[in-house]
Amino acid sequence: MTTAPPHAPARHDRASGRWISLGVLVLAVLLVAVDATVLGLATPFISEDLRPSGAQLLWIGDVYSFVIAGLLVSMGGLGDRIGHKRLLLTGAAAFGGVSVLNAYATGPEMLIAARALMGVAGATLMPATLALIRNIFTDARERSLAVGIWASSFSAGAAAGPLVGGLLLEHFWWGSVFLVNLPVMAVLVVAGARLLPESRDPSPGPWDLPSAALSLAGMIGTVYAIKEAAAHGTTPRAGAAAVAGIAALAWFVHRQRTLDSPLIDVRLFRDRGFSTAVAADMLAVLGLAGLVFFLSQFFQLVQGRSPLEAGLAELPATIGSVVTGLLAALAVRRTSARTVVASGLAAMGLALALLAGLHAGTGYPLLFTALLLAGAGAGFAFATTSDMIVSLVPKEQAGAASAVSETAYELGAALGIALLGSVPTGVSRGFAPPAGAPAGAAAAAHDSIGGAAQAAEALGGPAGQALLTAARDAFAAGLRCTAGVGAAVLLATAVAAWILLRDRRPGTPAD
């Protein structure tokens, strides 16, 4: 990997130039992260306007992250070949254009397709940001702080999505959550063209299209199987998707081992610190994304808050993630990476454990505490693991390592919505509607909590209220189950991170 033309690095000889460039990169990170969660509060409005099924609603929520996760490794390799700056600016322009398609979608199928295209554009953005940071900040201490800011913007963007959505939905229709991307992307393209240095591999070899297709097919097939199994059990469809996805991923790994110029050097995963950091990275984001997704629905559809109130209620997660993301590098220097990562994961596990007793009347102090803990834990864990992932590899492999880091992030976000979002839906489908409820209303209530709210409104009177109360109780029961499972997974991961990372620190060479 090399910094691009001789004139480009000169802009970054001064500290101010480096940090201004980081500010430009943060714009891209914020928008991609916000768009992963901003639809949480818009779900009831989309349900009312486009009438999606429960399965379609989940796809609207998570297909964006699925596609990004499937393409990040491929786009990281493409950036090494054509230049990360060029890929970033091209992706930014495409992201803005596709945002318009999302805003004016006329049916659930069109919105799912538009969200998938937005995922393609987002995948071109993300590998470029961390790879450019790795090359702009050559000093290890400065780079740790820069990665902490980068990670904070990721966590803050994901957690702030509901707040942004709430502010817009108070005054505009649901499509406005996409149109807000346009002015920010315009600033990113203009400023990025002037301020960012180019970065590419001088001898990258060809870009392998079959590897890109295998990566995408493997990721989407595997994650779809998990989502289908969480929502409907071990169906033949889920089994077929799992077999196809795992086979594609196995073929992808085999192909990378045999190519002279692979999209990613799979030997990176032989290093225990690298592999553990990737796993912890993914699970930290899984916990935060899942929590924000299901609490967005809980606040609105179970507790009856407005979109703005629900967004403000989730603000502690944003604050916690930003503060600890910025403090993560200092905490690592004072202690160790394993202490910070394990503590962050344990805090997230405790946050979910607090919600294991959730019910419709749960007071806000408990929810505030859980959100603050989850955000703080995610900030510590994600900032530290992101720095480890790019620091544990040689500089020339920064593009591949950054793609792995962001794949873990997006896969975690997709799984958070797929698993932690599907379990409440699956559990609530088993609730018994009140006696005398029309078959159509009962079917709508079983499909999703949004469908239950619409059916109850159509019924009206005591019958509608009884149906809505039963659906809310069933949804809360699903959230309790989800919180318990998520807490167990994150606490177990915290223990594993403590054991496997030992005293490794960001900047320590890989084994």
UniProtKB/TrEMBL annotation:
Domain of life: Bacteria
Keywords: Cell membrane, Membrane, Transmembrane, Transmembrane helix, Transport
UniProt-recorded Gene Ontology molecular function terms: transmembrane transporter activity
Domain Major facilitator superfamily (MFS) profile: 21-505
Its membrane topology: Multi-pass membrane protein
First-listed, main subcellular location of the protein, grouped into a coarse class: membrane
Keyword presence, Transmembrane: yes
GO cellular component: plasma membrane
Subcellular localization, as worded in the UniProt entry: Cell membrane
Membrane-crossing segments per the record: 20-45, 57-75, 87-105, 111-133, 145-165, 171-195, 207-226, 238-254, 274-295, 315-332, 339-358, 364-383, 481-501
Name of the protein described by the UniProt record: MFS transporter
Biological classification of the source: Bacteria, Bacillati, Actinomycetota, Actinomycetes, Streptosporangiales
